[in-house]
Amino acid sequence: MPESIANLKRENNDLKSKVSTLTEEISRLKDLFQQQSSSAAPSAKEKSHSLEFLSKEYDDFLLFKTTANKELQRLSSQLSQVKARVDAIANAIDEFQEYSFQYNVKIVGVPEVCSDEAASTTSKLCVKLFKEMGENISIQDIDTAHRVPQRNNAGNPKPIVCRFVRRLVKESLMSHRKEISNVTPAAVGLPEGSSLSSARIYDHLSPRMQAVLFQAKRVKEELHYQYCWSKGPVICLRKDSTSRIIKLKSMADLDELKRKLAIEG
Q1: What does the H/E/C string look like for the chain?
Q2: pTM of the model
Q3: Which domain of life is it from (predicted)?
Q4: Which residue from 13, 57, 62, 204 puts its CA 20 to 30 A from 256's CA?
Q5: Is there a contact between 201 and 173 (Cβ–Cβ < 8 Å)?
Q6: What is the chain's alpha carbon radius of gyration, rounded to the nearest angstrom?
Q7: What are the pLDDT digits (tens) for 162-188?
Q8: Is 42 exposed, middle or buried (0-12, 13-18, 19+ CB in 10 A)?
Q9: What is the spatial distance between Cα 207 and Cα 210, in angstroms, rounded to a whole number?
Q10: 137-166 burial by CB neighbour count: b if 16+ within 10 A, else e?
Q11: What is the largest CA-CA distance in the chain?
C-alpha cells in the first residue's frame, strides 16, 4: 500500500529543510574561497620578504585546501542523501498515483447535460450510460464523476473522469467499453441533437504514464508501428498484428527499447 499523502508532505518539508541547510553551507564555502582570494594579493611589505611571504602563502593554501576538501566532502555526502530522499519521494508519489488511478476511467466524446453540469449530474449520466452499455453499475459503485478541462477542446465536450469504489467494477466496464458506440443519446437524457459517435472509454492514466504514452506514440510514428495503447497502468506497443506486444511501465523502459532498436537497426 503506498504511503499516505500526509507522510509525503512530511518528507517534502524535511527535504526543504535539507535544501535550505545545503544552500547556507554552499554560501559559506563560497565566502571561504573569496576570503582566500582576497588574502592572496601580497602587500608592499610582503613583497620585500618574498621568501617568507611565499612560505606563509603556501601554508595558508594547504590549510584552506584541507578545510575546503572537508567541506566539499560533507556537502557531497548531504547532497547524496537529499538525492536519495528526492528519489524516494518521487517513487512514493508515483506509487500512490498509480494505485489511485487504477479505480478511474476517462470518458471522452460525451456531450454535457448542461453548461454548468454538477458532479452529481455527471455521476447520474454515467450510471445511465453504463446501464445502456449492459453494465449493472449503480450510483453506489461510483465514488465520484466529474468533468475535467482540457487544453485544446476545439468545441468538444469536456472529458469525464469517473472513479469507482471497486476495481472489479471498473474492470468489468473496460471489458465492454466498445458497447458505448451502441448507446443512443436520448436513452441517457442528453440534449436533442447530441451525438455519441466519438464517445470512447479509456484507462485514466497518471501524469507519469501519460508522459510515457505521449513519447510511446512518437516512437510509434517514427518506427511506423501500427499499434500503441494503454491497458491499465501499462503502455503497449506493437509493430503489427503478428509481432509481440512490448509493454512499457516507465520512461526508462521506453529508453531501453529505443536503445535496443538503435543497436538492432
Answers
A1: CCCCHHHHHHHHHHHHHHHHHHHHHHHHHHHHHHHHHHHCCCCHHHHHCHHHHHHHHHHHHHHHHHHHHHHHHHHHHHHHHHHHHHHHHHHHHHHHHHHHHCCEEEEECCCCCCCCCCHHHHHHHHHHHHHHCCCCCCHHHEEEEEECCCCCCCCCCCCEEEEECCHHHHHHHHHCHHHHHHCCHHHHCCCCCCCCCCCEEEECCCHHHHHHHHHHHHHHHHHCCCEEEEECCEEEEECCCCCCCEEECCHHHHHHHHHHHHHHC
A2: 0.67
A3: Eukaryota
A4: 204
A5: yes
A6: 30
A7: 999 999 999 999 999 999 999 999 999
A8: middle
A9: 5
A10: beeebbeebbbeeeeeeeeebbbbbbbbee
A11: 101
- Grid cell digits, residue 256: 531501453
